[in-house]
Design goal:
This protein is mainly α and about 425 residues long. The protein has 23 helices and no strands. Helices cover about 80% and strands about 0% of the residues.
Length: about 425
């Protein structure tokens, strides 16, 4: 069976609304089923699936998922938002900017874009609306800023890219810091422009910020310092050589439990069972996708699909700039129609040889890939962030997408800068 037939069947299954994991599994089994001489027999595919989850770095993903859920249930996003609003709330676009910074910090806790939108949006969208901001704009800013959840480390997609490419998770985490901050700053610049153009209800904002400041900075920091320390502890353990990313993920779970139960007292011991159950429901489907994606990528390698596509692109297009533009367009399209996890595991073996051939650092390419797929979170038809935000505000997905369009353009501008200026990713 040819590679074209395999991809065609995979796409047809997706169009017919088969689960992604099932579609990948079927597509992995077909070549061996139709050709007994093909290396990837049924038993080989099953061994590949089991081997795909036999990975120590991969254990970080369920731990970060669990940590993010604990922090969300523990009200950490509210503590972060209050601190940032205390400092910049009275400035132009201060409250929307505080939302963006909260998404940036919460992303460093959860490592997931949809989780960031859900945790931050459920709390901040009503606040923005009550302060007089347009409801669709309030929803769009959270949906797009939630994409920072996978760009700022620690990030689940970076772990998956490391798994697919063999690159260091710690190096990817370091490389993601400056791009994440850059995109956050650009989003805040647009929020400032938007508020200058359409205005703000300064009286309402002043009243809310004054109430917040009336509580006093010491009291606010006493509550918020534990939330602020979360990403510092996680990343500090990794960069300081104290723990591996997987060990740091486990530390983040116990820290989240300690802060939520002992410090904030927003959770009780009896809540742990429900939290673990939610974590299993969240990670379970992802685990099956990872298993099937691993087998599918190995089958494609045996069919020499990466070498074929790599050779075609290098023969058809000339110049590193043109090739990177083609790859970015391809990844943007993939991000629009496919979930991040299988997209990374399937496309990395195909595209990595190409970028290595044109002299691009694989760490930089990992950042570029994740940013491309982060844009997919806020672009129809599969934009998960849009659906999460829509469920929070009851605004149709396409209306949010229209309002988010300028913010997506800013994301694309940042993508081009990060693609063609290696120092942004590689300085650290």
């Amino acid at each position: 069976m040819s590679a074209v037939s395999v991809f065609l069947i995979f796409i047809i299954l997706l169009v017919l609304s088969f689960p992604i994991a099932s579609s990948l599994g079927v597509a992995s089994l077909l070549p061996g089923a139709f050709d007994s001489s093909f290396t990837a027999s049924v038993s080989y595919v099953i061994r590949s699936m089991l081997g795909g989850v036999d990975s120590f770095p991969l254990l970080a993903i369920p731990m970060f998922v669990l940590s993010g859920i604990i922090m969300a249930r523990g009200g950490v996003s509210r503590k972060l938002f209050d601190i940032f609003t205390f400092f910049i709330g009275k400035r132009r676009a201060g409250v929307p900017c505080a939302v963006i910074i909260t998404c940036l910090f919460y992303g460093a806790i959860s490592g997931s874009a949809p989780a960031t939108v859900a945790a931050v949006g459920s709390m901040t969208i009503p606040i923005l609306i009550n302060l007089g901001y347009d409801k669709t704009f309030s929803t769009a800013i959270v949906a797009v800023a939630g994409g920072l959840g996978v760009i700022i480390p620690p990030s689940i997609p970076y772990i998956l890219f490391s798994m697919a490419s063999g690159e260091s998770v710690g190096d990817l985490f370091k490389a993601g810091i400056i791009p994440g901050i850059l995109i956050a700053v650009l989003l805040m610049a647009y929020a400032s422009f938007y508020c200058r153009r359409y205005g703000e209800d300064t009286e309402k904002i002043k009243e809310v910020v004054d109430i917040l400041r009336g509580r006093g900075f010491p009291h606010l920091m006493k509550e918020g310092i534990w939330a602020l320390l979360t990403p510092v502890i996680i990343l500090g353990c990794i960069y300081g050589g104290i723990a591996s990313p997987t060990e740091a993920a486990v530390i983040s779970v116990f820290y989240a439990l300690f802060v939520s139960i002992v410090i904030y007292k927003t959770l009780k011991m009896k809540d742990i069972v429900a939290i673990c159950s939610e974590a299993v429901r969240t990670y379970g489907p992802l685990m099956f996708i990872l298993i099937a994606s691993t087998a599918f990528s190995r089958v494609l390698t045996l069919m020499q699909v990466p070498q074929t596509i790599s050779g075609w692109i290098l023969d058809t297009f000339s110049g590193a700039v043109v090739i990177m533009i083609v790859i970015n367009v391809f990844l943007l399209i993939v991000g629009m129609v496919m979930d991040t996890s299988p997209a990374i595991l399937i496309t990395t073996p195909i595209l990595l040889p190409i970028v290595l051939e044109i002299g691009m650092d694989p760490i930089q390419f990992g950042i570029v890939m994740v940013i491309n797929l982060a844009i997919g979170f806020v672009t129809p038809p599969i934009g998960v962030n849009l659906f999460v935000a829509s469920s929070l505000s009851d605004i149709p997905v396409m209306e949010i997408a229209k309002k988010a369009f300028p913010l997506i353009m800013i994301f694309l501008a940042a993508l081009l800068l990060i693609t063609f200026i290696p120092a942004i990713s590689l300085t650290l």
